Amino acid sequence: MAGATLEVEGRVVHEDCFDEDVIAELARRIAAAGGEALFETNGATYSLEPVGVEQSFLLGAGVVHGVDQMRVDGRLRVGKVCINACNLARVANDDGFIDREFELCNTGGQNRELSPKGIDKGVGVARALAYLGREGNARTFGFGDSGNDLGMLAAVETAVAMGNAMLEVKAVADYVTDDVAHDGTVAAMRHFGLI
Q1: 5, 65, 109, 166: which sits with the fewest CB atoms below 10 Å from its CB?
Q2: 140-144 long-range CB contacts below 8 Å, 24 or more apart?
Q3: How large is the average pLDDT for residues 115-135?
Q4: What is the mean pLDDT of the chain?
């Protein structure tokens, strides 16, 4: 979830979710605007859709029409929200809600990602290294293609950009590999002798 969760061997060892009131307000604004967004938790991805829409634009995401349908064991544990720029503009208003409550990331095209303040994939890398008892980032590799990968790529020793990556990602990469459709990750791992 863009650095909000650290999971090791199937067990969540660290989690930074949004405050439930913040997610409830965001969902209320999206519903009032007739928009849609994806809300990610550790257990599922929920597609908040207008009433009457029963199929998500993302296969496998459960369709919900309100925040209460996203609760698990009575709790709302959302760590990331994906929304398109048009829907984001309709819910942002001019009251500073988005800037105040979220880290906003351009993930390419019209796609935007909201994560908790101060959290990105670089934070996730740092927490993973600390959990593993590692000091420094020697022999760490990050593979990215989008704006949400920039924090991670800055946190690792070797930053690898996919061939289809955004220009901003390629600009910070130590190595640019093939695109996803041409097994770029495998090609880079071979290049660095990891496999």
Answers
A1: 109
A2: 141/188, 141/192, 141/194, 143/177, 143/184, 143/185, 143/188, 144/169, 144/173
A3: 94
A4: 93
